Amino acid sequence: MIIATIDTIEGKQLETLGLVRGSIVYSKHLGKDIVAAFKMLLGGEVFSYTEMLNEARAIATKRMVEEAEKLGADAIVGMRYASAAVMQGAAEIVAYGTAVKFR
Predict the structure, then answer these.
(1) What is residue 88's predicted lDDT score, i.e. its pLDDT?
(2) CATH superfamily of 2-102
(3) pTM score, two decimals?
(4) Domain limits of the chain?
């Protein structure tokens, strides 16, 4: 599956199949949240949150690809991520794009 942030794929004519998305609400356990709170006082990267968001993006992307595969897509174009804090230590990540088939 080709995933592109641009709206075209060079050398390919595309047939639009529709919007596809994958989402997840993801959180770390309380112990890591406490460690992250101390890290925020000292400054620097909060690795547990970086890890959390990387894992969440991977899962959201996988779910988006699975939805595109159900439509028979060859690629996803215009792919984007969106995120929102749901509560302290939890975030919703959405991966979305347009599923397309090559002509």
Answers:
(1) 72
(2) Hypothetical protein apc22750. Chain B (3.30.110.70)
(3) 0.82
(4) 2-102
